[in-house]
Give the backbone structure.
Amino acid sequence: MIVETIVVLAMLAGGAALVRIGGLRGWGVPVLGAVAGISAFIAVGIVQLLLPVTTSPILTIALTAGIPLTAWLWLLFRRKDVGVHWLWALLAGLGAIGGVAIFRMLRLSNWSYDSIQYILNGALIASDNFDEASTGLVPKRLIGVPLIHAAGNISGDLYLPSITPLISGLIIALIAWLSWTALSRHLTRWMSVGIIATGLLLLISINRFIFHSFYINGHLLFGLLLLAVVGCSWLLATDDRVAMPALLLVVGLASIALVVIRAEGCIAVALAILPIVLDETTPVRFKTALLASVGATVIGWQSFVAVAYLDDGLPTPFSVYGLLLVGVVMLGAIPILRWTRATRHRGLLLLVAELGLWLVLVILFLREPEMLIDSLDATVRNTVFGAGSWGLSLVMLLVLMVIVLCVSVPESVRLRFPLTTFVPFAFILAYLRDAAYRVGDGDSLNRMWMQLVPLVVLYLVLAIGAGRWRPLRWSERSSAVQSPPL
Amino acid sequence: MVGNARAILIGLALVAIVVNVLQFRTIEQGADPRYAALGRLPSPLLQESLSESQAIADIYSLFFHLSEVAPGSQLHIAADSRFPITSIRDNALGFGRADSVSGVEFDETVDWVTQDDLDTEVDTYHLEGSGSVWLPHHGDVPWQIVTGDCSTSSVGNDSTSFAVFHLRDAGDTSLLLIETCLAPEGMGAAK
């Protein structure tokens, strides 16, 4: 338990120091701090892996906590405004320790064969052997989840039992903080609390959310960081009271981490940050840093994957080259960020991107119709007829989402775009992996829906609290900050 | 949003919550036990819990066993081995806590031995464990870990050095991890 507590506290303290330096105050510091800490932990791990240094989790822990805390102490010593309320800091720390102790004691862990593969990658990272991992592991399980669990090898546990339920709790806290920040200035305190509580109850009453809260896998972590990227970027555009540097930091770090959590992470991140990159109100310097860091991470990781194929004596798949190209395009887009014609037509460009995904899917369908037909059939059985253990939950969320699309929410395009583009993208993935989705709980897409559910719940809460009825439009042109009409 | 519209949406969300709660138990009863929402590990130790599943034990028991009897070991596998070296390497370096897994050139004529070879050509050895491991393209393959008093002949430092061979008896192909100093003549390439 000692190692696990140290890891969790390192993430919390390091991340909290970062967002506090970024100007954040109040209870957002531990919440966004924990998100920043997890992301920073993974980002540090990526650097360790790509550079000729040890991948020991001890170094990851030390750097994740050490660098931000040193910077924070230095600023505190220079009497900068980075102080924290010690009582609240102590309570946050004790809460984290309590969470670790309780979840370790409960031993609530769900696992499948995939889970063991993630843990195996973690063992290889912890023993400094990940550069010898085969293509059976590297491109499929990546390093995001393994990096977090690698520290479990220090104590012989192989994994950290409390980390997944703590991520689940962090999703709840992040939705609450984002929603409270957005709604509390427009609605009465009790109205805000009521709407947020309704959204959170909706989330935790979903059977699959409870399953994923204890499931050793990357879906919930991916959902958390996608929620952080989209939610914080939405706040950036709609609320000028929240410290911009802290939000930018979280968006940047979470985007980097997302690249190495799931195989589809590169594309999913590209879709999530496209509305930010095309937004003229977002500082060009930040967009440059975002594209540079995410693009470099994509290229670095896919190069590592390509070398793994080379080492195994196998040809590098087309998908690796395609994802390398995505990274190159990100870097190549940096010089044209100041091109205002693109940002002026953000709505149109996003529409083109979304239609492009559908077009790709149609072309793939015409070439091989069985793949899509089988995948759709399995998906309907899983999500509508109960084969995937969702019951009616996804159907009800879909109905609510359709209604919410008729509600005008400021800058809703940032919330909607990653959700609606996921549909064609998910079925394109079936073609890329050359296997149709299957009927049953263990199907990939059946589990991937959880990556979107937290964001859907946030969208619902914001729409209920800060939206107004409007005629349905596919995209929003405006990027200007609007006050929610009440 | 005006009050009535907001109330309707909140009402719909509340209905969804009630439905979620009501269907929770039904989903649990119908789900594959591996995908039930609240699964409790039988043991605080993951590897003990995983061993409860025969399918998982078949894949990893050899490597968990290796990590117990010879942590930090060095494995030398025939470069032309018919077994999937990459799979063995992943698991041995990860769960087996091996220090290194390398491919070495073996004499093709002796890239396998039989149990009789082992019994007649090796004076004293300890069977540290045996079982069955699932390997890609091979299915379940019996395995044995054999050690001896090889402290002076182990490669490198204090770690145990194993040669990985095919142990073939009566048509069955097994995986033999034999400490290199015990390897019969002709298997010396791994020494």
Observations:
- The radius of gyration of chain B is 25 Å.
- The beta strands of chain B are 74-78, 100-104, 112-113, 126-135, 139-147, 161-169, 172-179.
